[in-house]
Design goal:
Elements: H1 3-7, E1 10-14, E2 17-22, E3 28-36, E4 39-42, H2 49-54, E5 64-65, E6 71-72, E7 76-79, E8 82-85, E9 96-97, E10 107-109, E11 115-122, E12 136-144, E13 148-157, E14 163-165, E15 168-169, E16 180-183, E17 187-191, E18 197-201, H3 204-210, E19 215-216, E20 222-227, E21 232-237, E22 242-248, E23 254-259, E24 268-272, H4 285-288, E25 291-293, E26 298-309
Antiparallel strand pairs: 1-2, 2-3, 3-4, 5-15, 6-9, 7-8, 10-11, 11-12, 12-13, 13-26, 14-25, 16-19, 16-21, 17-18, 17-20, 20-23, 21-22, 22-26, 23-24
GO biological process, one term: carbohydrate metabolic process
GO molecular function, one term: isomerase activity
Pfam families: Aldose_epim
Length: 310
């Protein structure tokens, strides 16, 4: 790692456990690891030097999703009777993806040995990444201890009108041939070929994740939202006698699993507050999630990763 890159990272430590934060790369977590009995353990997929040098959030260990999660069809929606066009915000995807906070720099503050607060301020403009027409601010409070890594995301609507809002985090986990996913969900959102949800219903992966053995990360080709989860999911590497459990509180009422067959090195299990395209789906809010923040209104939610080595 070169000096320029290292100077922009924040290191949190608790004993042999370490977290690297990359505030300027979308407020991302770049690594979460520890050394145990002389063995290095990556709990999240670490950012590579190339990803850090390229300032690529998709190459980080995890990054925040604000002010919405997943895709918005054709980068447009109607809110409060007015059309909202996100096609000029610099998003390189066919449908607007994950909001804008992951593609813009955050500012670090209140850093200690094992804690840090990251700040983000969005003021609408015509600049790339700034086309979201509502002003808002957000923070991430990140804390590392002997058992877990905890993240609390808070956001406040700074606009003088109501703002649609969603949030989440996008972690990547090490994926091997023996990786298993354990979770309890009510249904999977089935999707179009370009990954826009159509309906929530049964799928074999729902039963597989709930089984004692869990679901193999290679069992299905997944990039799907899941409805009504227990807000707990465990990613296990039984051949390595270790696991990590993601636990979340409301409004992280939805979960995304990304385990693409075409990229067998990628695995994401994400806590989110809304399903993809929730602003365009003609179903009830209970199924889609998402919120509307009134002027000055705030929202805050916490999730944590608890690690275990047997």
């Amino acid at each position: 790692m070169n000096a320029a890159t290292a100077d922009k990272l924040i290191e949190l430590r608790h004993g042999a456990r370490r977290v690297l934060l990359a505030p300027e790369i979308g407020g991302a977590i770049a690594a979460f690891d520890e050394t145990r009995d002389g063995r290095a353990i990556d709990w999240l997929r670490p950012a590579t030097l190339a990803a850090l040098a390229a300032r690529d959030p998709l190459g980080m260990a995890s990054f925040p999703l604000l002010p919405y999660c997943n895709r918005i069809r054709d980068a447009s929606f109607v809110f409060d009777g007015a059309p909202v066009d996100l096609s000029g915000d610099g998003n390189a995807f066919a449908h607007a993806l994950h909001g804008n906070a992951w593609r813009l720099p955050w500012r670090a503050g209140d850093v200690s040995e094992s804690r840090a607060r990251l700040h983000f301020l969005h003021e609408p403009s015509r600049a790339a990444g700034r086309h979201w027409p509502f002003a808002y601010e957000a923070t991430q409070d990140i804390a590392l201890d002997a058992l877990r890594l905890t993240v609390t995301i808070s956001a406040r609507n700074l606009s003088d009108r109501p703002m649609p809002f969603g949030m989440g985090h996008h972690p990547y986990y090490p994926r091997t041939r023996n990786t298993r996913i354990h979770a309890r969900v009510a249904a999977m959102w089935h999707s179009t070929p370009d990954l826009l949800p159509t309906h929530a219903g049964p799928h074999p992966c729902v039963d597989a994740m709930a089984s004692n053995e869990g679901m193999s990360a290679d069992a299905f080709d997944l990039d799907n939202n899941f409805a009504v989860w227990s807000r707990s999911a465990t990613i296990a590497w039984p051949d390595e006698a270790r696991s990590i459990t993601l636990e979340a509180c409301a409004p992280f009422d939805h979960m995304v699993v990304y385990a693409p067959a075409a990229h067998p090195d990628l695995l994401c299990v994400e806590p989110v507050s809304n399903v993809a395209d929730w602003l365009n789906l003609d179903v009830g809010r209970a199924l889609t999630g998402g919120a509307v923040l009134l002027p000055g209104e705030s929202v805050s939610a916490t999730f944590a990763w608890t690690t275990r080595v047997d």
